[in-house]
Amino acid sequence: MKDTPNNQPDTMKKPAPEKGISRRKFFKYMGTGIATYFVWTDYLASEALFPGEDAQAAPDQLSSWIHVSETGAITVYTGKVEVGQNIRTSLTQVVAEELFVPVSAITLVMGDTQLTPYDRGTYGSLTTPQMAPILRKAAASLREILLQEARKEWNLGEVELTLEKGTVQHPGNGKKLGYGSLAKAKRLLQPMDENVKTIHPDKWKVSGTSVRKIKGEDFITGKHRYVSDKVLPDMVYGKVLRAPVYGAKLLRADTSRAAELPGVQVVKEGDFIGVTANNSRSAAMALAMIEAEWEKSPQVPGNQLFEHLEESAGNTDPVPAAVSDAFDNAATKVAHDFKVSYIAHVPLEPRAGLARWTGDQLEVWTGTQRPFGVQEELENTFSIPKEKIRVYMPDTGSGYGGKHTGEAGIEAAKLAKATGRPVKVNWTREEEFKWAYFRPAGLIRVKAALTGNRISSWEFHNFNSGGAGISSPYSGQNNYQEYHRSDSPLRQGSYRALASTANIFAIESIVNDLAGMVRTDPMQFRLDNLEDERLKAVIKAAAKSFDWKRKKAGTNHGFGMACAAVKGGFVATFAEVVVDPDSRELKVLSAVTAFECGAILNPRHLESQITGCVLQGLGGALFEAVEFNEGNVSNAFLSSYRVPRFKDVPEMKVVLVNRKDLPSSGAGEAPITCIAPAIRNAIDDAVGVKLYDLPMLPSGVVPRS
Amino acid sequence: MKISVNNKEYTVEVDGNPSLLEVLREQLDLTGTKYGCGEAACGACKVLVNGTPTPACITPVTSVQGKQVLTIEGLETEGKLHPVQQVFLEEDVFQCSYCAPGMIMTAVALVENQKAMGEQEIIDGMNGNICRCCTYPAIVKALHKLTQTETKG
Predict the structure, then answer these.
(1) Predicted ipTM?
(2) Using an 8 Å Cβ cutoff, are A120 and A126 in contact?
(3) Residues of A in contact with B80 (CB under 8 A)
(4) Which domains does chain B have, with CATH numbers?
């Protein structure tokens, strides 16, 4: 069957693929078959993460498509990427469900700017709430097309047909038609039907189950090639000269000794100086032999960070009189500042980029959460059209919000262009610490008051760390919150859950302190002041599992809790700590986290995300901090920047609250937010010491009150 | 210089005194062993040298002459996964999995040297390895399951 107008439904309103792959070229790329596609326009409404980023996708930009080939192979194309959150698995489950095929029958092509449609990036817990339901509808639409094709084949009317393992079954004679034979010699491309019936969560057989990580065996045998592992024929290793401190300007560089080393090539383009060599050791040696002179510029002293964040902030809007009056007139009130340090993402795979020029065509492999963003960066760097740039994003060694940019890929492309050979640039750990970007530091100022047991005034300012999670979930009158943009002495950017971790730390500390001032159980106080039933439900679930009312094991033991609603996820963490009476050393004994994010797609991987969030959050809560002074980061090594290890893990418990009646939302961010305030409140409960800074205990020792 | 990796003899270049990690990855294309920190602080590069977990990033390649190096690529025997790999796969422990080869090599030495282990012994034995995705509880649970099974067996 040809691609005749008969195959074009009258209802087709959406344009055929234009960007990236044109409709005409579609089947040339994909091979004959049947496919459904959809566009972004109707689905995107989220805010930009970076200043200047276009908050809206280009109109009618394709977001994804699913193709069945004449061999029955099902391929899903999405611009989303896999950085360890295991969305390759959960998205595959969604498609498998609607198409009645095993998970193994589906290939997900992700984050390849030539093959996959534009995507702004994999961040903000958006994949599950946005991409999963769309893929579900697209797969269901494809299923309906396949059923329709089967009816045509068998000359049947609108009868019900059943599907099983990639085949359609004849209702009368028991014959089967495989998807491949239905797709044979066809060029049928249809837009997703928005009103298609998808399978109800109560009837899910694949979604909602703990399907194991796709290609899991490749990862535990070392076969999977991360970008840092990739090798191209004739490839050389590149390194780039870095300034000794932030803001230093290159005055002069003598590269003559480096250039004399065998196999070494030096590349100089303005302030950019790099070297390539046949192995990374020679490249590092050559780099070390460059004699460079730098001019430092004045930088903020580390011990003046928080003053600087406040002083450099823009004008403050006046606080509404009702808020300050209510505070002034209240009998029970509290006011405090919180200081939040810069922390580093420390993805275990540091930034890596591999680049190859073929004529004026550029290919770049790099570990990034935004392959299309990197394509734009390359377009700007080399002033070549996007069509000539292909960015590949193989499943990568984690990001946590820290890989939104494409530095290593751009550096590799510069060196490859100058040397005429493919170049790989693997950043060292020190480079990753110093020249990537950090979670912003922040100063938070809170004033709050109670009338009776209810919050009657709430004033909240965040300087620099951001506006995410700044709105208090507690009911009450006279609320005011403001995020003040400041000048950041260090390069900063996204981090898992953005500023929610900082803001929720402050909110949940103050709320806990208010409860203490009126001698109310902190959990009851929250339940009394919250309205959101989903949030209350996770508090109750965690409390039950933790056994909140139980007797403490001894003096210096404390219980603490915190809760939050972040990006469609509802989380409550309860913690038990003990403070050694002599050494004052803190031990976190247990942490129970209840989490609800609608209908669960993969319980095992959800549990893993929650556990990972809580434990990563434990680092920022207790000891992680970037130490710096006047532009120099002094703990840019894993021996001096401490991250959580096996021995830091308390007894962990995760309670999954499954709401099959609600749409699924993301889980990679929200559960990180409550461990810090839960521990903080538990320390207060144990020894009566209130802490206000993140990290709370860089030395591991609780100060005496 | 000749070195033995995964029961195979290789002739490698030692100019510039490269680390074992550099030689494995760049000369032998055995990229399963990862770089994580360059200072033996994270465990991503751990291989077994004569059965002992060794951070390849700070180990000069010249120091393994005459010794047996085992990397993640050499762990399967007759096409079968090592029990540690098998249990990690069954328990579906990892997220990004970049730490997995180093974790597995460390765990292999741990379980082979000490069959019956409690959770605390596993934690002590694995503490040099970082999983930044913090899948630690799943790793401990899987290894505990493995050592319990082996004890019973």
Answers:
(1) 0.97
(2) no
(3) none
(4) 2-74 (3.10.20.30), 83-152 (1.10.150.120)
